[in-house]
Specification:
Layout: E1 5-8, E2 13-17, E3 21-28, E4 32-40, E5 92-95, E6 105-114, E7 133-142, E8 147-156, E9 161-170, E10 176-188, E11 193-199, E12 209-212, E13 216-222, E14 231-239, E15 249-255, E16 260-266, E17 272-278, E18 285-287, E19 292-294, E20 297-303, H1 306-321, E21 335-337, H2 339-342, H3 348-361, E22 365-368, H4 397-406, E23 410-415, E24 419-420, H5 425-429, E25 449-450, H6 456-470, E26 477-480, H7 502-520, E27 525-528, H8 538-541, E28 546-548, H9 555-565, E29 574-579, H10 592-599, E30 603-607, H11 615-637, E31 639-644, E32 651-657, E33 663-670, E34 692-695, E35 701-703, H12 704-709, E36 722-730
Helix pairs in contact: 6-7, 9-10, 10-11
């Protein structure tokens, strides 16, 4: 089998390569690790990218050297640090014992291992067998100290993907402090990029934003303790002419669910540096002698054919090699959630008619949302008390779960394990579990507070409570929610000089708790949520194969939210529900058909009171459920394409093609009507041009080449927010 990584001893060049990509780095003067190239595959490198020598004014040189033409301040590097006379954004800052931040990283050694090492305590990509990937580990050493940085690069054999992370090792006797430790750095030469990011807000997540990379430093980050609604942990660098189907695209996704920081700097010489890692805001990690620190991973994807190919690389890796759930390849159940139907006002008897209607309509799972525990009749109490509210379930939760199962439905349950209410038994017994700064009154949000998950005893308490509910074996699914961000950041069992570790220790604690749940209940389907899409990241995908994309369930708003989400995350991760009209978030009135088609983009569910629907809408649910069961294997697991963007046009169009190209689903939404409408005709992509395809509704047959080159006209229909879905199958 062909080698994936080669080292040219003579020229000191590393070449990571497969049939799609090449990644080149070299050892330069002063044992400096330099970046050469990342992009389309080349067969062999012959040394044409040795960095030109030039005396750059005010760019210093190597210690003790009189050669003015070589400077770390202008060299494209693989990993830089403060204190080495590189005045650009550093990848790491280390506070030495003497108080200086003087670190000087030099190449020491390398090794190549087959497969990919796992990261202890962190979510990570993985391999099924060692032949599918190889990992290069390059060790850099502080020239004047006892600190080592292991740079990990994994290349997969059949993917345009490089996965990077860093392990820092203190090999000396003195305690050091990591004030910044990024997971990767990459320097590009002679590239004029646009940046694509996914900013947003609660109920307005992941709206695609494209801006020019101009000289200076651009920062995209979160300091909320989570990956956050305002800025998803992703950035792409693309050529100015890159589209969905053409041009270079470099995508970077962070496999982490806490504070992140993406720094894009264009220097005075038009070189672009990318630095990605844990946000250094309020970060200070004490690295004691002989200890190590492992950073989270960054997934780097390259496409030479536009954004869709980049996205497909992310989709494939996240689905195939990050998600571990037994449900990763199973069609996801159609559910109804009682939240917008009842909010906190429910009892077992009030819920049963919703279950009965769900059965009648072909829905497969009932999810009991917030309000089933403690004494919770509103959002002011009981978080942290994961015991059944007897007033609502006098016969116990198992009794109701049995009823749901008897109707042929699965049963799901809502939890918010990371939070605590002051009005709770947990707080009365353990007020110190609430994260707070001693001597200061903590700030509430939604009248709730954060548990100090960095502490093992706190995690164990919540785990034991959840066990008492989940050990019954009657819970098929849980929705894991988080409805506020971190404040009053302090960990009670850490000394004052280590409080800079709290944000990261919280995330590690969360991962530890999730790992215990996943390990004990492998048959449990877990859906992530954080006020909707506030923690929609590849790190959570390691534990949650699906995530609630947004608390905004309006179909038209969801077009932009789901479009942006699809830049990185596979459609099977994205849950999307049909809700009432007028919509409860924005008041918009949208046709039931449109709400269904948009929700079928991902994992379909219903967020409304089935018992209050008129007969027409009830029939529509039955038809949608029936249709979705026909197509969901394709829509959830096929190859996904974005065709039209509602942020930049009056339409949104998307398409999913089965792996064998025998089945395709095309969806189109027209946003606003016009008295003189344009004629529009989406052109399909990704089909077999030599196969005939039959429209399953009209039974008309088209050639694959016709559908891709000619397209088909959209219907002309009066009214805003009209949607159309086409289902084609190849004719044998």
């Amino acid at each position: 089998m062909n080698q994936l990584i080669n080292f040219d001893e003579k020229n000191k060049v590393f070449h990571l390569h497969n049939n799609q990509i090449s990644y080149l780095l070299s050892i330069e003067d002063g044992n400096t690790l330099a970046h050469l190239y990342f992009g389309k595959a080349i067969r062999e490198y012959h040394g044409g990218l040795r960095y030109p020598r030039l005396d750059r004014g005010f760019s210093g040189n190597l210690p003790g050297s009189l050669d003015r033409t070589f400077s770390k301040d202008s060299l494209p590097q693989e990993y830089s640090c403060a204190g080495e006379m590189d005045f650009r954004t550093p990848a790491t800052i280390v506070r030495q014992k003497d108080g200086s931040n003087a670190t000087f990283l030099t190449y020491e050694s390398y090794k190549i291992v087959q497969g990919k090492p796992n990261l202890e305590g962190l979510p990570h990509s993985w391999v099924k067998n060692k032949e599918e990937a190889a990992t290069l580990i390059i060790t850099l050493k502080d020239k004047y100290g006892d600190l080592k940085f292991d740079l990990l690069y994994t290349i997969y054999r059949d993917r345009p993907i490089i996965v990077r992370s860093v392990k820092v090792r203190n090999t000396g006797k003195d305690t050091l402090n990591l004030e910044k430790v990024s997971s990767m750095q990459m320097d590009f030469v002679d590239r004029n990029f646009d940046m694509i990011t996914l900013p947003g807000a609660h109920a307005h997540e992941r709206h695609m934003q494209r801006t020019r990379v101009n000289q200076g430093i651009h920062v995209y980050s979160s300091i909320r303790g989570t990956s956050s609604h305002p800025m998803n942990p992703f950035v792409a660098l693309v050529d100015k002419d890159t589209t969905e189907f053409a041009g270079d695209a470099y995508g970077f996704a962070f496999v982490y669910s806490g504070n992140h920081k993406f720094e894009i700097e264009k220097d005075p010489y038009s070189q672009t540096r990318v630095v990605i890692g844990i946000n250094d805001y309020n970060f200070n990690w004490e690295l004691q002698a002989k200890d190590s620190f492992q950073t989270p991973e960054v997934i780097m994807a390259y496409s030479d054919n536009g954004l869709n190919k980049m996205s497909q690389a992310f989709h494939s890796l996240i689905h195939d090699r990050i998600i571990r759930s037994k449900y990763k390849d199973q069609v996801r159940p159609i559910l109804v959630n009682n939240w917008e139907a009842t909010y906190f006002d429910f009892t077992e008897e009030k819920l049963k008619p919703i279950v009965d209607d769900a059965k009648d309509m072909g829905i497969e799972m009932f999810v009991l949302d917030d309000g089933w525990f403690g004494h919770r009749d509103d959002d002011n109490s009981s978080l942290g008390d994961w015991a059944v509210f007897k007033k609502k379930f006098p016969n116990g939760l198992d009794h109701f779960a049995d009823y749901v199962h008897q109707q042929g439905l699965k049963f799901g349950l809502w939890f918010e394990p990371e939070m605590i209410s002051v009005d709770s038994n947990l707080y009365k017994k353990h007020p110190d579990y609430l994260m707070h700064v001693p001597g200061r009154k903590p700030s509430p949000a939604r009248n709730q507070y954060v548990l100090d998950l960095g502490r093992e005893e706190v995690r164990n308490n919540i785990f034991e409570q959840m066990k008492k509910i989940l050990d019954s074996g009657k819970i098929d699914y849980i929705k894991w929610d988080m409805n506020r961000h971190l404040s009053d950041v302090y960990e009670a069992d850490l000394p004052a000089n280590r409080q800079g570790e709290v944000y990261h220790r919280y995330v590690l604690g969360l991962y530890d708790l999730l790992e215990k749940i996943v390990d004990r209940y492998p048959d449990l389907l877990i859906e992530g949520c954080s006020g909707g899409g506030g923690r929609f990241d590849a790190g959570m995908a390691y534990y949650n194969p699906q995530i609630w994309a947004s608390d905004d369930s309006d179909a038209i708003d969801r077009l932009s939210i789901q479009y942006g989400t699809s830049l990185v995350y596979p459609q099977s991760m994205m849950t999307s529900h049909v809700s009432v009209s007028p919509n409860e978030q924005n008041g918009r009135i949208t046709p039931f058909k449109t709400r269904g088609i948009v929700a079928m983009w991902g994992d379909l569910g219903y967020e409304l009171d089935l018992t209050k629907m008129n007969e027409k809408d009830r029939q529509s649910v039955k038809e949608q459920v029936k249709e979705y069961k026909k197509i969901r294997k394709v829509t959830q697991y096929g190859t996904f394409y974005r065709l039209k963007n509602a942020q930049t046009s009056n339409q949104c169009a998307w398409e999913t093609v089965s792996r064998d190209k025998n089945e395709v689903v095309l969806s189109v939404v027209k946003v606003m009507a016009s008295a003189q409408p344009d004629f529009t005709k989406p052109k399909l992509v990704g089909l077999d041009p030599n196969k005939p395809y039959e429209d399953q509704a009209s039974h008309k047959v088209y050639g694959g080449d016709e559908l891709m080159n000619l397209g088909i006209y959209d219907p002309i229909e009066h009214g805003d927010f009209k949607a159309y879905m086409y289902h084609f199958k190849a004719v044998k």
